[in-house]
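Job type: complex structure
Entries:
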Amino acid sequence: MRKYFTLLFLIFIGTVLYYTVSKISEEDDMNSSTYIFHTSSYLNDRVSETGIKNLVEAILIEYRSLDTLVIIIILLTSVISVSSLLRSNIENVVKTELLLDNTVLKTIALFIIPLCFLFSFYIFYRSDLYPGGGFQGGLMLGASIITLGFAFGGDIIEKKLPFTTLIYIISVSFILITLHGSIGFILGRNFFSYYFPEIFGKLEADIIRYYLRKLFVFNIAVIVSMVISSLFYIMEGVEK
Amino acid sequence: MKILTPPINFYYIGSVILIIIGFYIVVERHNLIKKIIGINIMETGVFLFLIAIGAAQGNRAPIYTSGSGTDIFVNPFPQFMVTMGIMITLGITTFGLGLVVKIFKHHKTIDARRLRNMMCKHDDDNEAN
């Protein structure tokens, strides 16, 4: 009886949700406000000035870079809270047995993981011209690290990347992001304006600004991959 | 009086179905890890909806290529918001799983009903004392 009531309630919620949602914008109605994309003049200037062709990436690192910083703070907070919750069983490293001791899995992992690393690097390095970005590349990097852990056992990851090192890497990346965001702030521009003065010349300053942006995306990718690797440690904690 | 007839948009239907499935899992399942999976499925539905309201048929991905000056792009802002949302989901999942592991270490169960009974018993004992 209870199940029927639950189902009826869910169907009611679903109908109400769909009715509300379908009011927002109708399909293929080009005059609807959600389809018309008004780029702000700031974004247009930035796209023509910096040469970033990918608009989502341009929003992420130029137009809404402070939002990106807040998201990184959320990720940092989650990892710090997890480390404080599970401090005792993460620090006592106990040898765990392999979940699946499978030769086929190991051989395939040996072929796939280097390709995954390479492709994730490509995704976040060329994100200004092609689809991708720091978050996507970081997700892929973290997934390949977890695959490594499942194929060859958690001991490899615990030896090469202990949990304390993981926390250090995340903290250093976060400090780097805030530091190089505040370079422009110190020199009289906006926060995250990636400004660098033309001390050595115009071309050199442009190159340094380009690599400041790349550093930002790289640090995002590192933080995201480390957060996903921390998931592996959390689930390992069940065994101990 | 004009009768309102909402058009059929399959992306919206899909997102509503995903949200309902996630809600059902959160309400009906008692395993805490399954509840976290349900929250993730609900968020997937929300992401699909956000992407769907920014997209229209025939519009291109928001990347400038040579000779694409006059084309219409899909709205890149919902895509940006979904990227942010996925990261928030990741943070919530990490924290939630950490809490579940901690609960398992203390109470040796992750069944929500048993945990509730344990807490009720604990309160009764406290009142008796």
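Summary: Residues 1-6 of chain B have pLDDT under 50 and may be disordered. The domain at 10-58+74-128 of chain B is CATH 1.10.287.3510 (Helix Hairpins).
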